[in-house]
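Sample entry was shown:
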Amino acid sequence: MEYSDTKQVVDESFEFPVTHTAVVEQIGTTEITSPSGDSITIQEVLAQVEEESYPSSDALYTTIIGNLDETFIGRKYYDDRGGTSPGTEVEDDATVSL
């Protein structure tokens, strides 16, 4: 499934609170695909956490999304607001956009 579908799957799959074991048993083999095409199962993501239960769909969703690696964030250091790149200095105050 696409990373953006994770919230819907979590919302539709459980009544909360739900145990960690129940999540892994029910949707653990579901793969989440990154924008680069790599994938990881929900079980692999949740193996990194020590939660015993999740009180709400938001808590479970946040735990899953918060433990995905950097391949899921899109273009690293991308900023569509313009300006300077990290680590560069502004030479002229007139070029700074507020």
The helical segments are 6-13, 20-27, 42-46, 57-66. The chain has a mean pLDDT of 84. Residues 3-72 form one domain. The longest helix spans residues 57-66.
